[in-house]
Amino acid sequence: MWLRVIYPASVLIFMLPAVVNADEANKLLNMCKACHGESGMSRFEHIPNIGWQNSDYLLKQLRAFKTGNRQDPTMTKVAQLLSEADMQQMADYFYLGKDK
Ligand code: HEC
């Protein structure tokens, strides 16, 4: 059961440097979608749905991952790549369920 999550997660982490070099917010967003689903509805049993979740809540969780107040092997690394503006944009994207 774990392998199904660990495998896609490790592939994505391996790809992170390439994503960062591209330095585009939508590349980062594509990375989120790969795990959390196009509209925030995850296809993976161990990855939470974040679509339609209140944007304040999403922003708070992303900040907590970034500062280390909330720990997760994947999300802690992911959040470190995000600026405050990226986090705001992503929280809005998943809250609204589409591009603005
Ligand atoms: C490799 C897979 C993966 C990627 C990529 C990923 N996430 Fe996550 N995300 C997870 C997992 C797994 C959790 C659950 C963490 C936990 O249990 O604490 C999570 C949790 C979250 C949460 C907290 C949800 C809640 O209900 O508290 C938010 C918000 C979130 N992710 C946003 C994002 C955003 C935004 C991105 C893109 C910048 C992203 N994630 C990229 C796997 C991923």
Short description:
This protein is an all-alpha fold and 100 residues long. 65% of the residues lie in helices and 0% in strands. Helix 1 (2-22) packs antiparallel against helix 2 (25-36) and helix 3 (55-67) runs antiparallel to helix 5 (84-96).
List low-confidence stretches.
none
Which descriptor suits the 3D outline? globular
- CATH architecture annotation name: Orthogonal Bundle
* Main structural class: mainly alpha
% residues in beta strands: under 5%
Estimate the mean pLDDT confidence: 84
> Count of helices?
5
Pattern of helices and strands: HHHHH
According to CATH, the fold-level topology is Cytochrome Bc1 Complex, Chain D, domain 2
What ions, cofactors and ligands are bound? heme C
The first-to-last residue Cα distance is 36 Å
Number of domains: 1
Largest sheet: none
CATH homologous superfamily, by name?
A: Cytochrome c-like domain
Q: In the CATH hierarchy, what is the class?
A: Mainly Alpha
SSE order and pairing:
Blueprint: H1 2-22, H2 25-36, H3 55-67, H4 75-80, H5 84-96
Helix pairs in contact: 1-2, 3-5
